[in-house]
Amino acid sequence: MASLGRKNQSLSRSNQSSDSILSRVSDSSIVRKGKSAACDAAYVAKRLMKSTGKAAWIVATSFIVLGLPLIIEMDREAQLNDLELQQASLLGTTAPQPSFMGPSS
User: Where is this region: Disordered (predicted)?
Assistant: First the structure.
């Protein structure tokens, strides 16, 4: 019984000394400044990711609404021009030059 009491006392003394060293280190100004810097960096990173996600959403939806129909229409126009050139070569006539300014009156 007496030996158990001595072991418990020695364990509690070693725990107290390690707790005091740990508490001293964790209460130091360097650790506090490091924690503060890490929290600030995490906050900035979170805000940056959130705003980047919003910007990506805006760009993607704008492209789908505005850019994709334009690309499809340009592809149709190119196919139509190719078809006209093919028909003109089959008939032996010259193909009309594409007018980018629209029909002139």
Answer: 1-36
Q: Which domain does 87 fall in, by range? A: 53-91
Backbone angles phi, psi at 26, to 5 degrees: -70, -20
- Within 10 angstroms of residue 92's Cβ, the number of other Cβ atoms is 6
* pLDDT band per the 50, 70, 90 thresholds, residue 47: very high
CA angle 29, 35, 37 (to 5 degrees): 100
Cβ atoms of 55 and 48 within 8 Å: the answer is no
Total structural domains within the chain: 1
Give the model's pLDDT for residue 21.
Answer: 78
